[in-house]
Task: inverse folding
């Protein structure tokens, strides 16, 4: 999956992390195009989940710093993604077919970027002046 300028939030560190998420998706595409060894899938899900925990902490720290950007709904979406990734990481869930896995990973990892993250970034950038003038 290629990065497109329309994916950008305008917040550099967040965009760098979102590019990394796309790299994970590209790795899932590669695995699902082949035989999708369950051990490799499990390892990639585990690495992805670990990165997403860091990424969500970054966003949630920014929410605390910039006025009017905290959102219980946004943070709940983060929890939803992490819970789903943790379930998938469980060996018993690796029975999920590779035709099913790729759309699910795209949904979990990137729909949130295109929706809630870009909305959050617009609000953060709009309120940045208030933050920096304190
Ligand atoms: Fe994000
Ligand atoms: Fe987010």
Result:
């Amino acid at each position: 999956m290629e990065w497109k300028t329309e994916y950008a939030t305008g917040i550099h560190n967040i965009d760098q992390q979102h590019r990394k998420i796309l790299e994970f998706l590209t790795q899932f595409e590669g695995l699902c195009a082949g035989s999708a060894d369950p051990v490799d899938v499990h390892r990639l899900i585990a690495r992805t989940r670990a990165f997403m925990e860091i990424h969500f902490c970054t966003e949630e720290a920014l929410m605390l710093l910039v006025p009017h950007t905290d959102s219980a709904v946004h943070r709940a979406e983060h929890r939803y993604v992490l819970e789903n990734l943790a379930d998938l990481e469980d060996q018993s869930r690796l029975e999920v077919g590779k035709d099913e896995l790729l759309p699910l990973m795209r949904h979990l990892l990137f729909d949130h970027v295109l929706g809630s993250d870009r909305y959050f970034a617009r609000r953060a950038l709009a309120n940045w002046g208030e933050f920096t003038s304190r």
